[in-house]
Design a protein that fits this description.
With 255 residues, the chain is mainly β. It has a domain of 175 residues: Lipocalin (Beta Barrel). It is 11% helix and 40% strand. It contains three helices and eleven strands, in the order E-E-E-E-E-E-H-E-E-E-E-E-H-H. It has an eight-stranded antiparallel beta barrel. Strand 9 and strand 10 form a beta hairpin.
């Protein structure tokens, strides 16, 4: 019986921070790498590791090798045939700890409706809490398989006698899992807080003193100002006529 106190619980794969990829030889001289962008999965780790389970589901149409032509070829009937087989599945049958932090996950890998048993070695990178309150576990590992075991046999011969695509490929696992927190885990803290509030003494209300009735006040009457006498203005002198004080001859231009 192997106990796993730090890993016990339900864990979900975080696809935004995980990579499930593969690599293989191309034309016998270079290596092509790819990954699946749509991956979901979870693991239920029991206190007794032998009772633990894990499941991974991959959408085959999400294959990505950074080449549109190559990706379309991989989606065709020559390889994954995504129209007929939209998913790749892995379901564990056993999880064993072979060393501290080292595990072997054995299970059924189904590709194109063909199921084979594979064992995947995984290393526990660590368990940490992120700034958002999530408890994360990191796992990494690789597993070399022969694609022909799952009926993926397409190839083209080279002039040298080799083949365009290697039959062997390496599965690459870089997984970040988030532990699911049950609502019951937060209950004790809430219960303790509620209990503390219940046990706190209730303060007695202070006596209320009635205020004396306010005396109604009336505003003083407005001041009456004596009427101001209007001062009569002296009559203004009338303007003199243009002819006043001037001889008539000068007035009409006569000398």
């Amino acid at each position: 019986m192997t106990e796993t106190p730090g890993l016990t619980g339900h864990w979900d794969i975080d696809p935004a921070h995980s990579r499930l990829g593969f690599s293989t030889r191309h034309a016998m001289v270079s290596r092509v790498r790819g990954a699946f962008n749509d991956v979901t999965g979870s693991a239920d780790i029991a206190e007794d590791l032998s009772d633990s389970t894990a499941t991974v589901v991959i959408k085959t149409a999400s294959v990505d090798t950074r080449s549109t032509d190559r990706d379309n070829h991989l989606r065709s009937a020559d390889f994954f045939d995504v129209e007929t087989y939209p998913e790749i599945r892995f379901v564990s049958s056993a999880i064993d700890e072979v060393d501290e932090g080292s595990y072997i996950v054995t299970g059924d890998l189904t590709i194109r409706d063909m199921t084979k048993t594979v064992s995947i070695p995984l290393e526990l990178i660590g368990i940490e809490s992120d700034p958002f309150g999530n408890l994360r576990a990191g796992l990494e590992g690789t597993r070399r398989i022969d694609r022909k075991d799952w009926g993926v046999t397409w190839n083209t011969k080279l002039d040298s006698g080799g083949v365009l695509v290697s039959d062997k490929l390496t599965l690459e696992f870089e997984l970040s899992l988030i532990k699911k927190v049950d609502s019951e885990d937060a209950a004790p803290a809430e219960s303790a807080e509620t209990t503390a509030q219940d046990e706190a003494p209730t303060p007695e209300p202070e006596p209320v003193t009635e205020a004396a009735p306010a005396t109604e006040a009336f505003p003083p009457p407005p001041l009456v100002k004596p009427a101001e006498q209007s001062a009569e203005k002296p009559a203004e002198p009338k303007p003199e006529s243009p002819s006043s004080g001037k001889p008539l001859g000068k007035l009409f231009g006569l000398r």
